[in-house]
Specification:
Blueprint: H1 5-22, H2 30-43, H3 47-60, H4 70-77
Helix pairs in contact: 1-2, 1-3
């Protein structure tokens, strides 16, 4: 349809997983989230890439800091 359908679906899954994870435990739809993680892993078989999709969504939603400079990231870890 758009030429980016696959990438949009991957991003949507990452955002949905992040949103569900951010809810209080009692309100999390665990089985749905687990299925979404499996689907994302199937769509992005390289573990590193599907983790990066989730981390990007977490940063964009404000759950992780943005680091434009690798040295800032290292300072944050120390």
């Amino acid at each position: 349809m758009t030429g980016r359908d696959y990438d949009i679906l991957v991003k949507a899954l990452a955002y949905a997983i992040t949103a569900i994870d951010s809810l209080p435990r009692i309100r999390q739809e665990v089985s749905d989230c687990d299925d979404m993680r499996r689907l994302l892993a199937a769509m992005r078989p390289n573990t590193r890439w599907h983790r990066e999709e989730i981390m990007a969504a977490r940063r964009h939603m404000g759950f992780e800091p943005f680091f434009l400079d690798p040295q800032d990231h290292q300072r944050h870890l120390n």
